[in-house]
Amino acid sequence: MESMASNLFLWSSYLLCFCLRNNADAGNIFIQPPSIAKNSRMAAMEKIAMIMADAGHNITYLAHTEYKVPDDFATAGIHVMKYQYPNDKVMYVPPDDMVQEYISMSIIDEMKAFMERGSVTEAYISNNMENLYTTELITRLKETEFDLSIFDSIDFVLGTLMKTYLDAPTVLWSNAGFEFHCADWLVPLSLSSVPNIFTGYSNEMTVMERMYNVYYYINEQYYMRDWIEMKEHYHEVYATKIGLNYTKGKYLFDADLLFVQSNFAYYYPRPLLPNVIPVLGLKDRKANPLVSPFKEFVDGAEHGFIILTFGSMPTGMDAMRREVFASVFAKLKQRVIWRYGGPTPKTLGNNTMVVKWIPQNDLLSHRNLRVFMTHCGASGSAEAVYNGVPVIGIPLFYDQRQHCGILTHRHKMGRVVIFDEVNTELLSDALDDVLKNPVYKQNALKAQALARDQPMSASQTIKYWAEYVMKHNGADHLKSVPTRELNFFQYYLLDIIFSILGFAVLVIVMFMSMIRKCFSRNKPKGNNDLTDKKVK
């Protein structure tokens, strides 16, 4: 009995030491999602918060009052702090007509609209900064002494000021892949082989595509000046309010490490610096069991089922297009799950389930799924590859064209349908092809095998590198100073090339001058005297 008591004491002591050790290793992590709209960027930050909470760290998650806290945050012990969302005039979910405007724009107009200092953006930023930086909440955050802060790379106004205020090592998340505003982080583009994210080009571009690629890049950099000006304006206004000395930043968003939602089994090969870490999709968890009504609907699909979703985009569409989709679906023998929130189409068939939300990853892993019809957002595209499903890509704008190109051109796992060109014949043809041609499924499974065959899972990668930055109090040793500090002429050695050309021209000029002098010395002095003598 005495021996058992002794052993129990030893085991209890061991467990206590183990728990204390784990608690001692836990870091204080601050996470701020971008909150200008409810979309996949916010969902990605939620997953990162869960990954780090599951690793035993103390997570403080800052959001506004419109944000709905996920149920599993409480179980994971994630502490959510909220500030007041601006007001009713500042939209949280963009309306359908705004999305339709973007769809109808040219790429250049889209860039301009995306980056210009519009009234909505100004109202959102000014109200959010006022509501956050003038409350006692900001003081409480500073007192926590965080070991790491995590932001979305697009949160370049609120996020960068918060990063400076907290003065903690910082990690960024680039949700759409290799996004244009992360240019300070990436090896400067080789425009001949790295397509602009606004386009659907592959890395094998024609002469005209390469010409347009350069054209889009120049316009992109030109319009980004609005973002830089906006950031500097608000930092100058609010820095002093929170006790910071305003200094103009060199970069749009500086940090220690950048996670990019991508990997090279998925994306086209391109050079990267060591502080840029590709992580595809954060999808390394097993699918959850489906619940009613989805379970009964897909389990009973004798000929399989199809998913149509435009992700977190508004799900209404104009009358013509919704009737096209509904009528084509009604003629299929497959069942259809359509994530849609607009008016009920008149031609909706009995085989179609219309819902406002779907458990997307769980449905994509189901054995009866035949086709995934998607707008090709970054997260949805990653899920399609991770689950190895054939797709019909219907890109709307921005990065969706590029992800659609990756799925359909690089991996050849589906077809493209242009949203503005949708009609009954085009949609029926695409569905018939993808449903009947087994090559798309074979290619999807090949892409799945490549994407999953990684040294670490997405969760492990996020955890390792976040803890690495905490452990070493930053990661300056991974940054390349020359790629960020050298100007265009220096980076591409144009100063050296011009110097060599100038020297070569100088040598040639000197050589030609010497030749002329040599010939002028050997030249006869003329025959005027002889002529004169003959005349005489």
Brief write-up:
With 536 residues, the protein is an alpha/beta fold.
Number of helices: 22
Q: Which CATH top level class of the largest domain fits?
A: Alpha Beta
Number of domains: 3
Q: What radius of gyration results from the CA coordinates?
A: 30 Å
Give the fraction of residues assigned to helices. Answer: 40-55%
The average pLDDT is 84
Low-confidence stretches: 8-24
How far the N terminus sits from the C terminus, by CA atoms, comes to 148 Å
% residues in beta strands: 5-15%
Largest sheet: 7 strands, parallel
* CATH H level, superfamily name of the largest domain: Glycogen Phosphorylase B
Could you give the order of strands across the largest sheet? Answer: 3-2-1-4-5-6-7
- State the shape: globular
What structural category characterises the helix and strand content? alpha/beta
Describe the structure.
The chain is α/β, with parallel strands linked by helices and 536 residues long. It folds into three domains: 25-280 and 458-485, Glycogen Phosphorylase B (Rossmann fold, 3-Layer(aba) Sandwich); 294-452, 3-Layer(aba) Sandwich (Rossmann fold), CATH 3.40.50.2000; 492-535. 48% of the residues lie in helices and 11% in strands. It has a seven-stranded parallel β-sheet, with helices on both faces. Strand 12 (391-393), helix 15 (400-410) and strand 13 form a beta-alpha-beta unit. Residues 8-24 have low confidence and may be disordered. It holds the Pfam family UDPGT.
